[in-house]
Amino acid sequence: MTEEDDFRAAVPLRGAFPELYAGLMEDRAAIAAGRETGVTLTRDADIVARLTATTPGWTARMADALRRSAEALPPP
After folding, report:
1. A Pfam family name for this chain (predicted)?
2. Distance (Å, rounded) from C-alpha 76 to C-alpha 74?
3. Using CA atoms, how far apart are residues 12 and 5, in angstroms rounded to an integer?
4. Model confidence over 39-51: pLDDT tens digits?
C-alpha cells in the first residue's frame, strides 16, 4: 500500500473515534466559553502516577484538589 492509498483510506477522527472526538469538542467548547483555561503543568512523577493509576477521571480529581487548595489561600 502506498502513502497515497493510506490517505485515500483515511477516516475522519469523528468517524473513527466518535467518543474521543466528542470529548475533544466538549473541551474546546468549555475553553471557548471561558469556563476552562488550557495550561501545561509539570508535576512530580509520583503524583502523576498516583492520579493516573486510580481510573479515568483523574484530571477532574486533580482539578478538584487544585480548587480546594486555591480556595484555602487568602484573597489576592
Report:
1. BrnA_antitoxin
2. 6
3. 15
4. 888 989 998 888 8
Q: Are 4 and 10 in contact (CB under 8 A)?
A: no
Residue with cell 502506498: 2
Let me know: does 30 contact 36? Beta carbons within 8 Å: yes
Distance in angstroms (rounded) separating the CA atoms of residues 49 and 58 = 10
pLDDT digits (tens, 9 = 90+) for 11-63: 998 999 989 888 888 888 888 888 888 888 898 999 888 888 877 888 888 88
Distance CA 4, CA 31 (A): 36
Residues 6+ apart with CB under 8 A from 13: 20, 21, 24
pTM confidence score: 0.52
